[in-house]
Amino acid sequence: MLNIETFTLGPLQTNAYLVTEETGKRGFVIDPGMSPARLLERVKGLEIEAIVLTHAHFDHMGGVEELRKAAGCPVYIHELEADWLTDPQKNGSARWPDVSPPLVTDPAEYRLEEGQTLELIGHRFQVMHTPGHSPGSVSLLCGRHLFAGDVLFRLSVGRTDLPGGREGDLLDSIRLKLFKLDPEVTVYPGHGPKTTIGFEMANNPYVALR
Which CATH code fits 3-203? Predict the structure, then answer.
């Protein structure tokens, strides 16, 4: 059984997820966003095995360096966005100075790719490459839990007007990959409330299958 805690962080209200195993002693973090003080306080005393980024936009990676140093853990990101962590133009932080200062982190230790399986906290997480919002966006699936980043939201989808975004790719990622999953799968998005695959298939106005 997974324990999943949500921390809504930073000016863009980004969902960071702390995923721990049954005992609650080991965990990993998905998308540690900006202003991560509450998350950092929560993980004190835990063994954090990894930071996994669904993509490298600044609101999702703003807390990476603080958490990596505090927990002594590696960072995983898709190859197509590996250089975004070191480039404020690519991660977007230099584009919105009223929202964020330019953000730079050390490079990620590991690369993610389609079909890869991550062994974390005694569970297996399947990596699904789901581009469209950004070229290296990934979703993580474990049983009936899907961490979808900014690909699929409750009654909405990720924006595609940022550099590297492509509407066709996003719709393909959702319809040809995510909507092939069990309808009972719970979706944990990068912003907003959780939802399910079945609910979005029936009701999402952008991609509903009728």
Answer: 3.60.15.10
Query: How far apart, in whole angstroms, are the C-alpha atoms of residue 210 and residue 150?
Result: 23
Q: Does pTM top 0.85 for this prediction?
A: yes
Residue 1: pLDDT band (50, 70, 90) is confident
How confident is the model over 171-208, as pLDDT tens digits? Answer: 999 999 999 999 999 999 999 999 999 999 999 999 97
Q: Are 128 and 140 in contact (CB under 8 A)?
A: yes
HEC letters along 14-61: EEEEEEECCCCCEEEEECCCCCCHHHHHHHCCCEEEEEECCCCCHHHH
- What are the boundaries of each domain within the chain? 3-203
How is residue 208 annotated by DSSP?
Answer: -
CA 146, distance to chain mean position in Å, is 10
Task: Give the single-character DSSP code of 119.
Answer: E
